[in-house]
Design a protein that fits this description.
This protein is of the alpha/beta class. Helices cover about 40% and strands about 15% of the residues. Bound molecules: NADPH dihydro-nicotinamide-adenine-dinucleotide phosphate (NDP) and 2-hydroxyethylsulfonic acid. NADPH dihydro-nicotinamide-adenine-dinucleotide phosphate binds near residues 12, 135 and 190.
Length: about 250
């Protein structure tokens, strides 16, 4: 029987690339996001893989619950949960920060991850197996100027990842985080509210990580033998040494 991976934020970037990579690895997939067209396109692309689409906003705990409870029998047994949905909203000094941006980052990156995990973990506990991968960030390991609340949200993911691993120890469920540095996705377009020129500049003058690079690492992580847990992995492109030091030409 195929293993099932549940991917939040599968409609673009790292989540989408992970869906494609895991399909090649023989997984069947629950693809989550808010943009139906993008998820349907992905399902069409993955037409040889069993997939199920779940449309919900991770911020809404009732929607999260309803969506996960609506899974058809064939997709209910989740082997791998990839907590990937998330974004930065804005890049401002703390004093200029926008409260709606702050709400979005805390509600999506932190509370959304909690709601999804809380709904999926009980069935993993019953089966005494499962694997949770939390997508953190280098922004969860260090704080950079104007990163304030996004960095706080990713530091929270780092803490939640550790907390989950401690509390789920001995239950059969393994937990680990992957913390990417700069990855060329829709991330900066969202951060800069659709300003494509500003978004593109983030990735100019060096070779940033691509979503596929992270997807391949996720594939490696989920295909290790049961006794091997990659607990916390930071990945940067070669040009990046820290959040603020990037060798651009
Ligand atoms: P993208 O913007 O390409 O993808 C973000 C995904 O999250 C989309 O599929 C989006 O789906 C989903 N999402 C956003 N908000 C919500 C919401 N409220 N409810 C449900 N789904 C939501 O960015 P990335 O692929 O780069 O980002 C994926 C993860 O990787 C994020 O957690 C991000 O913080 C992290 N990361 C990214 C890095 C980068 O440089 N790109 C580096 C380090 C970490 P939809 O809009 O359809 O809802
Ligand atoms: C995304 C990477 O450096 O833009 O988490 O915060 S960064």
């Amino acid at each position: 029987m195929k293993k099932t991976a549940f991917i939040t934020g599968a409609s673009s970037g790292i989540g989408k690339a992970t869906a494609i990579a895991l399909a090649k690895e023989g997984f069947q997939l629950v693809l989550c996001g808010r943009r139906e067209t993008k998820l349907t396109e992905l399902q069409e692309f993955l037409k040889h893989t069993p997939t199920h689409q779940l449309l919900f906003d991770v911020r809404d705990k009732e929607e999260v619950k309803k969506a996960i409870q609506s899974l058809p029998e064939a997709f209910k047994e989740i082997d791998v949960l990839i907590n990937n949905a998330g974004n930065a909203h804005g890049l401002d000094t703390f004093q200029d920060g926008n409260l709606d941006d702050w709400d979005a980052m805390i509600d999506i990156n932190v509370k959304g991850l909690l709601y999804v995990s809380k709904e999926i973990i009980p069935a993993m506990l019953k089966r005494e197996e499962g694997h949770i991968i939390n997508i953190g960030s280098t922004a969860g390991k260090e704080v950079y100027p104007k990163g304030n609340v996004y960095c706080a949200s990713k530091h929270a993911v780092d803490a939640i990842n550790q907390g989950m691993r401690l509390d789920l120890n001995g239950t059969g469920v393994k937990v680990g985080a992957i913390n990417p540095g700069l990855v060329e996705t829709e991330f900066s377009k969202v951060r800069f509210k659709g300003d494509e020129d500003r978004a593109n500049k983030v990735y100019q003058g060096y070779k940033a990580l691509q979503a596929k690079d992270i997807a391949e690492i996720i594939c490696f992580v989920v295909t290790r033998p049961y006794h091997v847990n990659i607990a916390d992995l930071t990945v940067m492109c070669t040009a990046q040494a820290s959040s603020t030091i990037v060798d651009k030409n």
